[in-house]
Amino acid sequence: VVWTALASRVLDARGAFDRRWRGGWTVGSWIIPIANLVLPKLVYNELERGLAVPYRDEPIGESWRSINRTTLADAWWALWIGGLVVSQAAALVSDVDGSDEEYALALTINSAALLLIAAAGIALLFVIRRMAVVSTT
Fold first, then answer.
1. Rounded to an integer, what distance in angstroms lies between the CA atom of residue 88 and that of residue 109?
2. CB of 1 within 8 A of CB of 40?
3. Are 80 and 36 in contact (CB under 8 A)?
4. Which of 68, 79, 110, 80 minimizes the C-alpha distance to 93?
5. Mind listing the pLDDT tens digit for each residue in 37-63?
6. Rg over CA atoms, the chain
7. CB neighbours of 80 closer than 8 A, spacing ≥ 6?
8. How far apart are CA 90 and CA 98, in angstroms?
């Protein structure tokens, strides 16, 4: 979240025009219930496109709008949301007074959720690295 706010400031300093998700949205998008399933991805889409513009000594203006987002960023978000949904399914299945089979099922589902979330974390590292490398070249 901190990196997102810093990256947004970089885009502001580089003169990106007509940005929709900047400033407080970079942090606030994560804490608004239900909206936090979509808004952070919209923030990252904008950052990814803006930071993909090669660095020059002139403002980037609206040139960032013509750049497409990557499938890696889409995969990160799909894995993240998928992990959250599967984790909630595990919570629904688990029952304190349930049988051993129910408990084992809940653990299996939760393990799958953790794998999805771990994969999302790895994908996010690649997304951020790509944005950081492209914005400095």
1. 9
2. no
3. no
4. 110
5. 999 999 988 988 888 887 777 788 888
6. 18
7. 116, 117, 120, 124
8. 13
